[in-house]
Write a structure and sequence with these properties.
Elements: H1 2-44, E1 47-54, H2 58-71, E2 75-82, H3 84-92, E3 99-101, H4 105-113, E4 123-128, E5 130-135, E6 156-159, H5 165-176, H6 180-183, E7 187-190, H7 193-201, E8 207-211, H8 212-215, E9 223-229, E10 235-241, H9 248-259, H10 261-269, E11 273-274
Helix pairs in contact: 2-10, 3-4
Length: 277
């Protein structure tokens, strides 16, 4: 009887051991599956960065996004396009921005003075030019900025000089030409260069000042360039990583792409002049 009891206890012990081993393997498998799921989730959810860029960069940067994300699948780029001054004010207000690209040096200088950008990352990456445009069907004889003083020219659109660098460049050019006082009451202020372009495309104004790159994006047959407007300050675009960025490594990757050969080639395709030229 004692011998049979011992045999039963041994058999029971073997079954218990097998059961524990099975549970252990199951737990290990669950852990492995959890790790795999977590890794897969990480690969499918790249780090997102927000790039606040001047409105005039819309087409070029949108094109750049596709190429950049193909080469950097771990980064998802989200754009915020507007007048450079408005974008600066958003950054000053604490907006979650990782990269700032301005259409002039002034707004970047202000952020640098407030220590809101990483100065070591700041680079100039492109140049542009200012042009005067009119609706294609205009019957006004506008061939240069001095023609804007004619009484039949009633509405001239410029970007708001406080927030849109294109407007600042325009007012400087008009002032230097000695005609600002004669035409300032005719001006229709726009939020950014894209709005100026829209006003002229629709024939809502008689003329407008935009960048050459924006004139090239106009709907076919809607506008014509009548003059290139000289400015005393180079229309230079700087870019930098924002100090409060939570994704500085990814932000720097984007800055490096913009200033690198591939980014420069795309910008040139859209009419920008590489800063090095």
């Amino acid at each position: 009887m004692r011998k049979e009891l011992i045999v039963l206890l041994v058999i029971l012990g073997v079954f218990l051991a097998i059961g524990c081993t099975g549970n252990g393997n199951e737990a290990t498998n669950e852990t492995d599956n959890s790790v795999v799921a977590e890794t897969s989730s990480s690969e499918q959810n790249p780090d997102a960065i927000t790039v606040s860029a001047a409105a005039s960069l819309t087409e070029a940067f949108t094109d750049i996004e596709s190429q950049f994300e193909t080469e950097n699948p771990d980064v998802d780029v989200n754009f915020n396009f507007a007048g450079s001054g408005n974008l600066r004010q958003q950054i000053e207000g604490g907006a979650p921005v990782d990269v700032f690209a301005s259409a002039n040096q002034n707004h970047m200088d202000i952020l640098a003075g407030e220590k809101l950008i990483e100065n070591s990352t700041r680079k100039d990456f492109a140049q542009n030019s200012l042009v005067l445009i009119v609706p294609t069907n205009s019957d006004l004889n506008i061939t240069g900025i001095k023609d804007l003083t004619a009484p039949e020219v009633e509405k001239i659109s410029i970007g708001n000089p406080e927030t849109a660098p294109v407007g600042k460049y325009a007012t400087q050019a008009l002032t230097e030409a000695g005609i600002w006082d004669q035409i300032k009451d005719k001006t229709i202020l726009a939020e950014d260069v894209k709005q100026v372009l829209t006003y002229v495309e629709r024939g809502e104004v008689d003329a407008g000042f935009v960048y050459m790159t924006d004139a090239k994006t106009a709907d076919p047959g809607t506008i014509k360039i009548v003059a290139t407007v000289p400015v005393n300050t180079s229309i230079s675009y700087p870019i930098a990583v924002v100090s409060d960025s939570d994704n500085k490594e990814e932000a720097q990757e984007f800055v490096d792409f913009i200033t690198g050969d591939e980014g420069q080639e795309i910008l040139e395709k859209y009419g920008f002049t590489p800063e090095s030229e």
